[in-house]
From TrEMBL:
Signal peptide: none
CDD domains linked to this entry: VirB11-like_ATPase
Annotated Gene3D superfamilies: 3.30.450.380, P-loop containing nucleotide triphosphate hydrolases
Domain Bacterial type II secretion system protein E, residue spans: 85-363
Protein name in UniProt: CpaF family protein
SUPFAM superfamilies: P-loop containing nucleoside triphosphate hydrolases (SSF52540)
Length: 436
């Protein structure tokens, strides 16, 4: 056992050493020379054939140059070069790791990943910034996106549904900054989030009733708090007979629904022409006979179109918004509407918001990385020029006898007032004390 641990430590130490990078760079140059000799033939090889070729050539390179490394170290270099030629180099293992949620690269030697909501630095590095940019451009190539000094910032959707953001010089001072958000290939279902502890069965029952009765819902929370995953889950409650249109800056939603039309905004060309905003898409979606409109994130002028849609018969609409609390969510809606050029009074804007939104679901990422619904709040109209809200559930963790923190949602015993939930009231109740 001790020998295995020592071997693993030696492997990790070598793979993170400058010697490893120097030998790999020299072996890479050797491989490029051999590939040039092969010409077009190399482009037709499978990954298995490339691996066999790299194993042979790296072994020959180490013997002929008398490189002072053992067989296991030769294997490490060959494996790294196979990923370099046939995949995405140092990123490949992270991209294939299902536990990794985010990959954050701050220059070629500073890489962090998020697992279960917790950031941790990983012992992986690139040879230099040029190496990092080469891999990033390989990812971008099939997407048709340009990255250079004249276009130093790129936001793109990956083929697997993930999201890639890259910022390079002159905007980034200390080397290329790469942010990759990964998404599950199998979307989470309500039972999955209950099992993970994101919310309780009682809250799931309330949210299911709210969605099926066409309540308008905003999911509020901070960065990486789980807003998109929760939106995916709530959309799963939409009846299969309805037509759903999703609108996003970068398509991330993967709804478990048979009739979904996915729209994605367009940033425009190098000269700034051809921009199609979320507001444009939202305005156009009203002509596409939607039963439900789902906006991936409300963060600009589209807020006016969304409020108008919710107020003019497009019930059951949903979206996410960056805010730290339900009250802050309302303030942010007002601010965005003001930036969008809303011409009415403060009172009329608040009345529109109060009439449009039925529920705000606040979700957050705790200090231990766990994602939890922090509150479920109903909007009840206006009073003295203030939007009236009532909190139905609140997250308050408790400690058990062993001082271990346990999830706990407190029901405030209040009854939802929305007339949309009227059909759920007779002889029924949501668990936890909320009677409808």
């Amino acid at each position: 056992m001790a020998k295995d641990i020592q071997f693993a430590d030696d492997v990790l130490s070598f793979s993170n050493s400058q010697q490893f990078q120097d030998i790999k760079a020299a072996a890479h140059d050797h491989l490029l020379s051999r590939i040039e000799e092969l010409g077009a033939e190399f482009g037709r090889w499978t990954r298995g054939e490339i691996k066999h070729f790299v194993d042979q050539e790296v072994g020959h390179f180490a013997r002929s140059r008398r490189v002072p490394i053992n067989e296991s170290e030769v294997g490490l270099i060959a494996d790294a070069l196979t990923k370099e030629l046939a995949g995405f180099g140092p990123l490949e293992d992270l991209l294939n790791d299902v536990a990794v949620e985010d990959i954050l690269i701050n220059g070629f030697r500073d890489i962090y990943v998020s697992r279960h909501g917790v950031l941790q630095r990983v012992d992986i590095r690139f040879s230099d910034d040029a190496h990092l940019l080469r891999i990033v451009r390989r990812i971008l190539a099939p997407l048709g996106r340009r990255l250079d000094e004249s276009n130093p910032m790129v936001d793109a959707r990956l083929p697997d549904g993930g999201r890639l953001n890259v910022v390079i010089s002159p905007l980034s001072i200390d080397g290329p900054v790469v942010s990759i958000r990964k998404f599950r290939k199998d979307p989470l279902k309500p039972a999955d989030l209950i099992h993970l502890g994101t919310f309780s069965q009682e809250i799931a029952d309330l949210l299911e009733a709210a969605v099926q009765s066409r309540c308008n819902i905003l999911i509020s929370g901070g960065t990486s708090s789980g807003k998109t995953s929760l939106l995916n889950v709530l959309a799963g409650y939409i009846p299969e007979t309805e037509r759903v249109i999703t609108i996003e800056d970068t398509a991330e939603l993967s709804l478990n629904h048979p009739h979904v039309v996915r729209l994605e905004s367009r940033p425009g060309g190098f000269d700034g022409n051809g921009v199609i905003s979320i507001r444009d898409l939202l305005r156009n979606s009203l002509r596409m006979r939607p039963d439900r409109i789902v906006v991936g994130e409300v963060r600009g002028a589209e807020v006016l179109e969304l409020l108008q849609a919710m107020n003019t018969g497009h019930d059951g609409s949903m979206g996410t918004i960056h805010a730290s609390s339900p009250r802050e969510c309302l303030y942010r809606l007002e601010m965005l509407a003001g930036f969008a050029g809303f011409q009415g009074s403060e009172s009329s804007l608040r009345r529109q918001i109060a009439n449009a939104i039925d529920f705000i679901v606040q979700i957050g990422r705790l200090s231990n990385g766990r994602r939890r619904i922090l509150s479920v709040t109903e909007i009840n109209g206006m009073s003295d020029n203030v939007i009236v809200m009532q909190e139905l559930y609140r997250y308050e963790a408790e400690e058990d006898a062993d001082h271990v923190e346990q999830d706990n949602w407190v029901s405030l015993g209040l009854r939802p007032h929305s007339p949309k939930l009227a059909r759920y009231r007779p002889a029924s109740s949501f668990a936890g004390g909320i009677h409808v």
